[in-house]
Structures are given as C-alpha cells and as structure tokens.
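Support reply, case 0932

Customer input (verbatim):
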Amino acid sequence: MTSERDPRQVVGRVRHVDVEKEEFIVELPNGFVVPYDLREDDNFAKGDVVLVSPNLDEVQPGARELWPEERWIGVVRLVLDGEVIVDVGGRIRTFPLPNDFTVEKGNTVEGVDSEGIQRVVTEDPIRYLDLREETLTGEQFRTQPSDSPSFDDFGGYSEIIERAQELIELPLKQHDALAKIGAKPIKGVLFTGVPGTGKTMLARIIANRAGAAFYEISGPQVLSKWYGQSEELIRAIFDDAAAQGRAIVFFDEMDSLASQRNDTSHEASRRIVGQLLSSMDGFTIDTNVVVIATTNRPQDIDVALRRPGRFDWEINFSLPSLEDREMILRTSARRLNTQGELPHSIIAQKTDSWSPAELTAIWSEAALLAVKDERDVILEEDYFGGFERVAAQRARVIASVRAEPAEEEAR
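Our regenerated output:
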C-alpha cells in the first residue's frame, strides 16, 4: 500500500538493493543517485517507485505511475554476463540482458526503464549526425574570402601583419615555388594573446589576400557528447580544405578543444587531439592548407600539437602600443560619419593597456551619444563621452576580477 504523496516529496526509483550490505540506491529524475540504509521493515526491490522527503533523509513507497516513463534509444557499448551497458544520450546505463533476442556491441536499441531493452533498432550505432535533417560537412564551415576585411580595416600591429604575411600569405601564394626548392611546408601557426586583439580579423584578411577558402571553427561547434561526431567533423573540414586550391582552417579558442592529455582527461578530448594530429600529419606535398589556431593560454594546448610540423610557429598579439592605439582609433573612425579633427592622440594616451576591442567600443558608445542627441554625426564631445563610458565599464570589470580571489580566500 502506498502512502499519500506530500507535494514537497521528490519522486525516485530504486536502482539497486544490496541485502548483504543492508543498503539500497535511489535514482532521482535528474539522474542523481542517493544511498540509504536498508532497515528491517523495508521491502524495496529494484525498479520500485518511491517518494523521497524534501531533505532526502526519508524514503516511502510510491505509486508506479508517478515515475516518468519514457522510451529511449541508445547504443550498446558492452555486453556482459546478464547485463548490457547502453549509452543513452551520453549517459551510461545498465539493463538486464534480454531473454528472447540477442544484442551485440554497437547495436542501436530501444527500451523503457521499467522493462529494459525491448528491441534492436539497427545493428549499427545511430549517431547524432545520422539523426540531423542535414549532415554537417566541412563545406558548411567555409566562408567566402570576398566577405573578409582588408588591411585598411586593421589598424596598427605592423610587425604582426608582416610576420603573418611571411608565415601564411606567402606560403599559400607561392606553394609551388617553395615545393620546387624542397622547403618543408608550414602546417600550423598559433596566434596567442589576450582576447580582443584582432586575431580572427587578421586571419580573415590573410585568407582574402591569398584568395584562400576560409574555414572558421570554434571549440563548441565541434565538441559533442556523441561518440565519434567531433572526429568526423574535423575529418570532413580537413578533407574539404585539402580539395581547395588554397585554404586556411581557423580554430578559435584552441585550448578549449585540444587541452593537455593526461590520466584525468575525458576520452572525447583525447580522441579530438588524436584526430587533429592525424589530420595535420596527413598533409601531402600537394596540400596547400595552413591551420591557424588562437588561444590566450598556449600552455594548455596538448604538447603534441606544438611539436615541429604542427603548431610550431607562433605569433603573439600583445596589447597595442601608443602608436598602435592611435592607428586603431583613426582606422575605426574612417568607417564612421564624424565631424572636425578628433583628438585621437589624446584618447590613445589615456588608453594604456587597452585592447583593440575596447578601443573600438569607444566608437559604439560615441555613436549612441550622437543618436541620443538626435545627430547623425559624431562630434568631439561624443568621442570623449564614449571613452568615459568604456573606461568606467572597464574599471568595473577589473575590480570584479580582482575581487574574486579575495572572496575565494574569505570562504
């Protein structure tokens, strides 16, 4: 007989009962499991629905219909003696081995929690890619070089521009000449430096100037809990790039995608690093592809990716100098409707240690001030006002970052 439900109680289900250890395990709908001592008057069995008190210290029998029963589809990872290990949406589950049909490793199966595996959907694993209306391909990460900005839009950093042209643009344009010399092709270049220093923009400009196909990929776009999907996407991108006359494959925030492999690394992370190594090592003498990756934490990228023949070239984007800051401000102003001679040198002197992104934000604030005053042109007063707004926001962010360690110590 089940007890009347208190609305504050949480529905659970008995996942395991161990009479010898006098304990049982309750699974909650969110996937959490809670262990309990098995008392003499308890008569719980695996699969029973229970009601758990709000503070999780008491368990009572509950009606079976209270547990949300939904059908699931998963991939068999391992078949043991009497048990089947199934990957259901990235979560590993254990079910009894069916009696009336056979399941094997790699099968896609369907079932419900109360009854276990009910049928084999297909002998092969169905992956997330298979279930999409459109299969993701390398071509979908490709953008047209004509959409890229030019060096006229990139202020300052003359030394960085020159080095990027040497390492990326020249090898792409003069691939055949370098091959005749017998020079080893440059495979990967690492852009390092704090966020907002124009790393992505420069990569796009180089691709445009070299007439190269440009593939832009961020870590979250290829990271997936589905087995094999991330590696397949990386292979597809590199295969598509290799088929082009010239190509740049650009990975943003590489440290989030290919972190150091160690004993505690997630299996998916190790597989992704392995696929990146395989793809870069698979370049032939005819492959005219340069891989660019950005990071502000180069030490976190797996060491194998930074060995010779991979990302062994590095360009560091430091914060802009006084001259660079003035050039960035002037370059941004050319795209705007301004009036009079604006005090770029004064603003440049006031923005020591600012990133190009923060400098550009001044113009966004200045434009808002102009529109607020019902003008379609930016004046000197808007320029100073924009600077003051960004400076105030920047000061708040810096104060917040500095306060975090102090709060951690206090706790």
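We compared this against your earlier run and they match. Two observations from our side: Residues 380-410 form the longest helix (31 residues). The first strand starts at residue 10 and ends at 18. Please reopen the case if you see a mismatch on your end.
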